[in-house]
Amino acid sequence: MKKTLISAAVFALTSAALISAGYATAKTDNNKVYSVHDNVEFPPHSWRIVKHTFRVHIPQNNNALSQLIIDTPSSVAVSNDIDVLDNSGQKININISVNGRRILIYFPEKVISNTKLVIEFNKVRQPTVGSASVYSFWAKTVGNDTEIPVGTAQFSTF
Protein backbone atom coordinates (compact mmCIF):
# COMPACT_ATOMS: atom_id res chain seq x y z
CA MET A 1 0.00 0.00 0.00
CA LYS A 2 2.83 2.38 0.92
CA LYS A 3 4.53 1.60 -2.38
CA THR A 4 1.37 2.53 -4.32
CA LEU A 5 0.95 5.83 -2.45
CA ILE A 6 4.61 6.74 -2.93
CA SER A 7 4.43 5.88 -6.64
CA ALA A 8 1.25 7.97 -7.04
CA ALA A 9 2.84 10.92 -5.22
CA VAL A 10 5.99 10.76 -7.38
CA PHE A 11 3.89 10.55 -10.54
CA ALA A 12 1.76 13.55 -9.47
CA LEU A 13 4.78 15.69 -8.60
CA THR A 14 6.56 14.78 -11.83
CA SER A 15 3.44 15.63 -13.86
CA ALA A 16 3.02 18.97 -12.07
CA ALA A 17 6.67 19.87 -12.65
CA LEU A 18 6.40 19.09 -16.36
CA ILE A 19 3.10 20.97 -16.83
CA SER A 20 4.24 24.18 -15.10
CA ALA A 21 7.57 24.32 -16.95
CA GLY A 22 6.39 27.21 -19.13
CA TYR A 23 3.34 28.96 -20.48
CA ALA A 24 4.70 29.62 -23.95
CA THR A 25 6.82 27.31 -26.03
CA ALA A 26 8.10 27.77 -29.54
CA LYS A 27 7.67 25.06 -32.13
CA THR A 28 11.07 23.56 -32.87
CA ASP A 29 10.50 21.42 -35.95
CA ASN A 30 11.92 22.53 -39.28
CA ASN A 31 8.70 23.33 -41.10
CA LYS A 32 9.86 26.96 -41.69
CA VAL A 33 6.80 28.45 -39.93
CA TYR A 34 7.27 30.41 -36.71
CA SER A 35 4.61 29.97 -34.07
CA VAL A 36 4.01 30.19 -30.35
CA HIS A 37 1.73 27.84 -28.48
CA ASP A 38 -0.02 27.96 -25.11
CA ASN A 39 0.46 31.64 -24.31
CA VAL A 40 -1.21 32.94 -21.15
CA GLU A 41 -1.46 36.50 -19.82
CA PHE A 42 -1.82 37.21 -16.09
CA PRO A 43 -3.63 39.30 -15.07
CA PRO A 44 -5.82 39.96 -18.12
CA HIS A 45 -5.70 43.63 -19.15
CA SER A 46 -8.83 45.54 -20.00
CA TRP A 47 -7.00 48.69 -21.22
CA ARG A 48 -4.24 49.22 -23.75
CA ILE A 49 -2.17 52.14 -25.03
CA VAL A 50 -2.74 52.87 -28.73
CA LYS A 51 -2.00 55.61 -31.25
CA HIS A 52 -4.89 57.29 -33.05
CA THR A 53 -4.02 59.11 -36.29
CA PHE A 54 -6.35 61.45 -38.18
CA ARG A 55 -6.01 63.12 -41.57
CA VAL A 56 -7.82 66.42 -42.00
CA HIS A 57 -8.06 68.19 -45.36
CA ILE A 58 -8.05 72.00 -45.23
CA PRO A 59 -9.66 73.29 -48.45
CA GLN A 60 -8.04 75.92 -50.67
CA ASN A 61 -10.92 78.39 -50.99
CA ASN A 62 -11.49 78.90 -47.24
CA ASN A 63 -9.83 81.24 -44.77
CA ALA A 64 -6.71 79.95 -43.04
CA LEU A 65 -7.23 77.61 -40.10
CA SER A 66 -6.59 79.13 -36.68
CA GLN A 67 -7.89 76.38 -34.43
CA LEU A 68 -8.88 72.71 -34.62
CA ILE A 69 -11.27 71.42 -31.95
CA ILE A 70 -11.58 67.72 -31.23
CA ASP A 71 -14.27 66.27 -28.99
CA THR A 72 -12.92 63.02 -27.55
CA PRO A 73 -15.16 60.09 -26.60
CA SER A 74 -15.71 59.28 -22.94
CA SER A 75 -14.40 55.76 -23.56
CA VAL A 76 -10.76 56.89 -24.04
CA ALA A 77 -8.13 58.88 -22.17
CA VAL A 78 -5.97 61.02 -24.45
CA SER A 79 -2.59 62.27 -23.21
CA ASN A 80 -1.08 65.59 -24.22
CA ASP A 81 1.42 63.74 -26.44
CA ILE A 82 -0.04 65.12 -29.69
CA ASP A 83 1.79 65.82 -32.96
CA VAL A 84 0.47 67.71 -35.99
CA LEU A 85 2.27 67.20 -39.30
CA ASP A 86 1.92 68.92 -42.68
CA ASN A 87 1.86 67.36 -46.18
CA SER A 88 5.62 66.80 -46.15
CA GLY A 89 5.65 65.16 -42.71
CA GLN A 90 7.14 68.18 -40.94
CA LYS A 91 5.89 68.93 -37.44
CA ILE A 92 3.81 72.06 -37.12
CA ASN A 93 4.22 74.22 -34.03
CA ILE A 94 0.99 74.03 -32.03
CA ASN A 95 -0.41 75.01 -28.67
CA ILE A 96 -2.77 72.61 -26.95
CA SER A 97 -5.50 73.37 -24.47
CA VAL A 98 -7.83 70.86 -22.83
CA ASN A 99 -11.33 71.71 -21.64
CA GLY A 100 -12.96 68.56 -20.26
CA ARG A 101 -13.28 66.08 -23.15
CA ARG A 102 -12.50 68.81 -25.70
CA ILE A 103 -8.99 69.29 -27.10
CA LEU A 104 -8.22 72.66 -28.67
CA ILE A 105 -5.25 72.84 -31.05
CA TYR A 106 -4.06 76.38 -31.84
CA PHE A 107 -1.80 77.23 -34.78
CA PRO A 108 0.15 80.29 -33.52
CA GLU A 109 2.85 80.68 -36.18
CA LYS A 110 1.89 79.17 -39.48
CA VAL A 111 -1.08 80.03 -41.66
CA ILE A 112 -2.77 76.69 -42.28
CA SER A 113 -4.68 76.53 -45.58
CA ASN A 114 -4.84 74.31 -48.68
CA THR A 115 -3.15 71.36 -46.99
CA LYS A 116 -3.75 68.00 -45.39
CA LEU A 117 -2.90 67.75 -41.72
CA VAL A 118 -2.00 64.56 -39.90
CA ILE A 119 -2.95 64.66 -36.23
CA GLU A 120 -1.36 61.96 -34.07
CA PHE A 121 -2.62 61.16 -30.58
CA ASN A 122 0.40 59.13 -29.50
CA LYS A 123 -0.69 57.68 -26.16
CA VAL A 124 -4.40 56.97 -26.06
CA ARG A 125 -5.66 54.71 -23.31
CA GLN A 126 -8.48 52.67 -24.85
CA PRO A 127 -10.51 49.75 -23.50
CA THR A 128 -10.10 46.38 -25.21
CA VAL A 129 -13.86 45.77 -25.22
CA GLY A 130 -16.88 48.01 -25.53
CA SER A 131 -18.28 50.42 -28.05
CA ALA A 132 -16.26 52.17 -30.74
CA SER A 133 -14.46 55.44 -29.97
CA VAL A 134 -15.96 58.30 -32.01
CA TYR A 135 -14.15 61.65 -32.28
CA SER A 136 -15.87 64.82 -33.56
CA PHE A 137 -13.89 67.57 -35.32
CA TRP A 138 -14.58 71.30 -35.56
CA ALA A 139 -12.52 74.15 -37.02
CA LYS A 140 -12.21 77.88 -36.55
CA THR A 141 -10.73 80.11 -39.24
CA VAL A 142 -8.72 83.32 -38.96
CA GLY A 143 -11.04 86.24 -38.25
CA ASN A 144 -14.08 84.04 -37.53
CA ASP A 145 -15.07 82.67 -34.12
CA THR A 146 -17.73 80.27 -35.46
CA GLU A 147 -17.10 76.54 -35.01
CA ILE A 148 -17.34 74.85 -38.41
CA PRO A 149 -18.15 71.10 -38.33
CA VAL A 150 -15.43 69.10 -40.07
CA GLY A 151 -16.50 65.49 -39.48
CA THR A 152 -16.08 62.44 -37.28
CA ALA A 153 -13.61 59.58 -36.99
CA GLN A 154 -14.30 56.18 -35.45
CA PHE A 155 -11.95 53.59 -33.96
CA SER A 156 -13.19 50.12 -33.12
CA THR A 157 -12.18 48.25 -29.99
CA PHE A 158 -10.90 44.72 -30.32
Describe, in plain words, how this protein is organized in 3D.
This protein has 158 residues and is mainly β. It folds into two domains: 2-37, no CATH class; 47-155, Sandwich (Immunoglobulin-like), CATH 2.60.40. It is 11% helix and 44% strand. It contains one helix and eleven strands. The chain has one helix at residues 2-19, and strands at residues 25-26, 36-37, 47-58, 65-71, 77-78, 82-85, 95-99, 102-106, 115-127, 133-141, 148-155. The strands form three sheets. The protein has a five-stranded antiparallel β-sheet with strand order 7-8-4-10-11, with no helix packed on it. Strands 3, 5, 6 and 9 form a four-stranded antiparallel β-sheet that branches. Strands 1-2 form a two-stranded antiparallel sheet. Strand 10 and strand 11 form a beta hairpin. The N and C termini lie far apart (55 Å). The model is unreliable at 8-44 (pLDDT under 50).
